[in-house]
Design goal:
The complex is a heterodimer of chains A (587) and B (370). Chain A is α+β, with helices and mostly antiparallel strands. Chain A has 3 domains: 17-41 and 385-586, Multidrug efflux transporter AcrB transmembrane domain (Multidrug efflux transporter AcrB transmembrane fold); 52-122, 2-Layer Sandwich (Alpha-Beta Plaits), CATH 3.30.70; 126-172 and 183-364, 2-Layer Sandwich (Gyrase A, domain 2), CATH 3.30.1360. Helices cover 49% and strands 14% of the residues of chain A. Chain A has a 5-stranded mixed beta barrel with strand order 4-6-5-11-10, surrounded by 4 helices. In chain A, helix 14 packs parallel to helix 16 (517-548). The longest helix of chain A is centred in the last third of the chain and has 33 residues, at 482-514. The two termini of chain A are 20 Å apart. With 370 residues, chain B is α+β, with helices and mostly antiparallel strands. In chain B, 68% of the residues lie in helices and 7% in strands. Chain B contains 14 helices and 6 strands. Chain B is elongated and about 100 Å long. In chain B, the strands form 2 sheets. Chain B has a 4-stranded antiparallel β-sheet with strand order 3-4-2-5. Chain B has 2 domains: 8-48 and 135-309, Multidrug efflux transporter AcrB transmembrane fold; 56-129, 2-Layer Sandwich (Beta Polymerase, domain 2), CATH 3.30.460. Chains A and B meet through helix 3, strand 2, strand 13, helix 12 and helix 14 of A and helix 1, helix 4, strand 3, strand 5 and helix 6 of B.
Chain lengths: 587, 370
């Protein structure tokens, strides 16, 4: 040992191993604390291990579509439901068709059954329909130019007023163009604005707008009668209207209520369909003050259609410059269009979204509408398919296997096995707590294959230490003392670990992005354990090794340290060191 | 254990070692034999897909006091040879799913179940169920696998070289074929667990191969600057050098799985645990085996075809011949030449030439004493 003094350590710049260890300790305490904070002390188990709830959904016959309930549609519906309840693939839900017209959905214990029911039961038939007429939600005795229309007329029409409205609702727009007197459309942002509600607003100078003719433009008298008969103020009325609207052909005009039941509409044929939505996500509109909204991106085809219809609508008078976003027969939102929108995206605001409901809607829109509508026939609990004995057997066997691993490591690596076992323990604690916390966070559930996968992950984690230990031992065989060996072995071991873990991570990432269902869930677990492997080796094993290399027990190569140069067969002339009297025995 | 340690040391120095590369033909032969057996098994027996893939029949019984475990036995005896999944529902009825039954086949099973549970046959409701692991999941899984294979080969070709990428791919296919073949031969039912097991093996097989290749790459870094060893010999030494690591890793990875397979599965009989652990056990063993016995020799084979390596082999041969001649003329010399040779001959650069100075200098750059 050339420099036995403690002060001049860390030649290779691997300073502060203690801090790194403290960091990972704090992370561990934080995770365990989080577990207690949320009150989830065990990971959520999959349906095979813990049982859960089973829904039976029956497809509903729709008038006008006699052959809709067929195998193709049922399979499509099952696939969409699967993705809705198991978008990340980690929640271990099962969806299968049963008989000709039933779908069974099994969700593991501890899943929010109400939410799941909504997710699988909602058809999510989305359509963008131009608004022809708006009326207040109650029954109107005679088909009249509706109050909604009048309301519109009373309403401030001045460009300034519109501009102001726009600025209030869309403060996000970076540069608010001052209201120009000529073009209304330009005065507002290109984003859609929520249309003002039908109640008259006092502001603005009334601009003479083309008076709506008493008969609805483009709407037949039949639809006018329907509108008059429509009662949106009661739940039944809304449900009925929704059902009728949902069953109508896309090319038909429909009458519909908004979700609150305050307004009713006559709507033109579907201009853009839900199928044209490529992707949707929930967002919080903090600047515009609209609360939770759903942002949609259209497919290129859908974008074109959308640009088309908005271009047409923008030129029309109120309320025909509004379009309605209709979801399962109810109007969620009725934004006004001021100019053609070419962005290929749109937002749904209003509708009283909460975080949950906006996320659910975005989720449904992303995965598409069910080709059929379903009602829930039956909801019941189910027991675990594998029963407790399999889990217990698995745990027992796993424990025996782990015991053997410990024995093997101790026998082979002796003192070093402490490092290995400590690292495995850290890895186990991190895996367990993170999996437990992911239960409530993203619905992660552990099934039997995942438990087995975790056991294999032990081997992969252990391999990282083994690679490193063997490197250190090789360095010692070269005649180095422990501390330089620890530092010199590290860069090479690190490269091996990173290269090989990268391959595993690549597999996980590709499978996670591309696949669905259980394969996706597997990819998630693989990625997680691979990342944890790297974290543990870098932040725990290496610093611990650096610290231990300073201990006399290891540095001197005590026979039980697992680093005895003699046992390792270090080259004889180099074995002798001033601080290693044990080595001289042989002489 | 100290023996193991010193064997490790001697392996590391190349004093002892198994000639993996020289005997590669034997191992290729063995692998081809196993693979053919696996393929024949697959062709003859086929895979036995579980209810999750193929669908089947579901029977709902009236409320009963029979537990789901007892129901399991009932179902298995009612439909021998088919996999049964039994769940007890909240209202006390049993939901029994049996794979691979069509309408016709399910009738006698329905009667059997009714008889066993002592309920009227008409109270047992039968319906066909579709697969929960639908075609879409399978299609996407294949797509994902395809993309991954392309990416990993590209990555290995860049990070290592195309020969290693090719060898790793062959080893991977080898491992998966053997695992699937063994699965077909044993006749266990293919469940989602099996598929997950196969995917785990896919990851592990590549991982293990990459670890071995990494050491091979390091060992062959400056190969053209020396004339002591051919590429094959370097590769052989590199395998032997990492042999201890390979053995240790394999033991550590296999022990828990062996526990699952022999203790868990063996004691409790067939079950999902058995399906998974069998796939894992065979696959892990094959993965560890192929990295050493197949992948690295393949790389050596491919490498030796390179003109550069051919030239090197020639030089090495020439040098050896002349050394031999010298040796013969000098009759005998003392010492074991092998003890020192590896150090400066192989691969590994600089420092190893002067281990003494290194040991003293403790890795500090010599100029910066402060």
């Amino acid at each position: 040992m050339a420099a036995p003094k403690k002060g001049r350590r860390t030649p290779a710049g691997h300073g502060h191993p203690g801090r790194t260890l403290a960091l990972i300790l704090i992370v561990m305490i934080g995770l365990v604390g989080g577990m207690f904070w949320y009150g989830h002390l065990t990971p959520r188990l999959g349906i095979d291990l813990a049982g859960g709830t089973s829904f039976t959904l029956a497809a509903q016959n729709q008038p006008g579509k006699p052959n809709a309930i067929n195998e193709t549609n049922m399979n499509t519906a099952a696939g969409i439901m699967e993705r809705r309840v198991n978008g990340l693939g980690v929640s271990e839900t099962e969806v299968q068709t049963q008989g000709n017209d039933h779908i069974i959905v099994n969700i593991p214990k501890g899943t929010d059954a109400k939410q799941a029911r909504q997710q699988v039961g909602t058809t999510a038939q989305l359509g963008f329909r131009p608004v022809l007429t708006i009326a207040p939600g109650t029954k109107t005795p005679t088909p009249n130019p509706s109050k909604g229309q009048q309301g519109k007329n009373d309403q401030g029409k001045g460009d300034k007023a519109t501009g102001k409205q726009g600025s209030q609702q869309k403060a996000t727009s970076p540069s608010k163009p001052s209201a120009s007197p000529t073009t209304q459309g330009r005065a507002v942002t290109d984003a859609l604005k929520k249309a003002p509600s039908a109640k008259p607003t006092p502001s603005g100078s009334a601009k003479p707008s083309p008076k709506p003719s008493p008969t609805l433009p483009g709407a037949g008298s039949g639809i006018a009668k329907q509108l008059a008969a429509l009662d949106c103020s009661t739940k039944q009325g809304r449900a009925l209207a929704g059902q009728q609207a949902a069953n109508a052909k896309p090319s038909d005009q429909i009458v519909a209520c908004n979700q609150e039941g305050t307004q009713k509409y006559v709507l033109g044929p579907v201009a853009v369909e839900g199928m044209d939505v490529k992707d949707a996500k929930a967002a919080f509109d903090s600047q515009g003050g609209q609360g939770w909204i759903v942002q949609m991106d259209f497919t290129s085809d859908g974008g074109k259609k959308f640009a088309d219809i908005t271009g047409k609508l923008a030129a029309k008078p109120r309320p025909q410059n509004q379009f309605a976003i209709v979801l399962d027969g109810a109007v969620v939102s009725d934004p006004r269009v001021d100019q053609q929108l070419n962005g290929g995206s749109a937002t749904i605001s209003g509708g009283g979204f909460t975080q949950q409901s906006s996320e659910d809607l975005a989720n449904m829109l992303s995965y598409g509408a069910l080709p059929l509508s379903f009602h829930i026939d039956d909801e019941t609990t189910v027991t675990a398919a594998l029963g407790g004995e399999q889990l217990h057997a698995g745990l027992l066997a796993g424990a025996i296997g782990l015991g053997l691993v410990v024995l093997y490591l101790v026998a082979y690596y002796r003192g070093l096995s402490l490092v290995a076992l400590a690292s495995l323990t850290v890895s186990a604690i991190l895996t367990y707590t993170i999996m437990t916390l992911l239960g409530p966070a993203i619905g992660f559930a552990l099934n039997l294959p995942a438990v087995c996968g975790a056991i294999v992950a032990i081997g992969i984690t252990a391999d990282s230490f083994i690679v490193y230990f063997e490197r250190i031992r090789d360095e010692i065989r070269e005649g180095r003392t422990l501390r330089p060996a620890v530092e010199r072995g590290w860069p090479r071991a690190r490269r091996t670990i990173l290269v090989s873990d990268f391959v595993s991570f690549l597999a996980a990432a590709v499978l996670f992005i591309v696949t669905v269902g259980k394969v996706k869930g597997f990819a998630f677990t693989l990625g997680l354990t691979t990342l944890l492997d790297v974290v543990v080796v870098f932040l725990f094993t290496k610093p611990l090794m650096t610290l231990l290399a300073r201990r006399k027990f290891f540095a001197d190569g005590h026979p039980w340290s697992g680093l005895d140069p003699k046992r390792l067969g270090a080259k004889p002339p180099l074995r002798r060191r001033r601080t290693a009297p044990t080595q001289t025995k042989e002489a | 254990m100290s023996k193991l340690g010193s064997i490790g040391a001697r392996l590391y120095r190349g004093e002892v070692g198994y000639d993996f590369i020289g005997k590669r033909k034997i191992w290729y032969g063995i692998s081809i034999l196993i693979t053919i057996t696996a393929l024949v098994g697959l062709a003859v027996r086929g895979l036995n897909f579980g209810i999750e893939f193929s669908g089947g029949a579901v029977f709902s019984t009236p409320a009963t006091s029979v537990s789901s475990a007892q129901g399991q036995h009932t179902a298995e005896s009612a439909a021998p040879g088919h996999q049964a999944m039994v769940q007890k529902l909240g209202n006390g009825t049993l939901r029994i799913q049996i794979s691979g039954l069509d309408t016709k086949q399910s009738l006698p099973v329905q009667e059997e179940i009714a008889k066993d549970l002592k309920v009227p046959v008409k109270d047992v409701n039968t319906q066909l169920v579709g697969p929960s692991w639908g075609e879409q999941i399978a299609d996407k899984a294949w797509l994902g696998l395809g993309i991954f294979m392309v990416l990993v080969v590209l990555y290995l070709a860049v990070a290592f070289e195309w020969r290693m990428a090719l060898a790793a791919l062959i080893a991977l296919i080898h491992d998966l074929t053997i695992t699937v073949g063994v699965y077909a031969l044993v006749g266990f039912e293919v469940t989602p667990g099996t598929v997950i097991g196969l995917l785990t093996i896919l990851g592990y097989s590549l991982y293990d191969t990459v670890v071995v290749f990494d050491s091979l790459k390091e060992a062959s870094k400056d190969i053209t600057k020396q004339t002591r060893f051919t590429y094959s010999e370097i590769a052989n030494r590199s395998i032997n050098g990492t042999l201890v690591r390979s053995i240790n890793t394999t033991v550590v990875a296999l022990l828990p799985v062996a526990g699952l397979l022999f203790v868990g599965g063996g004691v409790l009989g067939a079950g999902m645990l058995n399906d998974i652990s069998l796939a894992l056990f065979v696959g892990l063993a094959a993965g560890a085996y192929s990295s050493i016995f197949i992948a690295t020799p393949l790389v050596a084979d491919l490498k030796e075809r390179e003109p550069q390596m051919k030239a090197l082999a020639k030089r090495v041969k020439a040098k050896r011949a002349s050394a031999e001649a010298k040796e013969a003329s000098r009759a005998e010399t003392s010492g074991d030449p092998q003890d020192d040779d590896p150090e400066d001959g192989a691969s590994v650069v600089g420092p190893r030439h002067q281990p003494i100075a290194r040991g003293r200098g403790r890795g500090r750059p010599s100029g910066k004493r402060r």
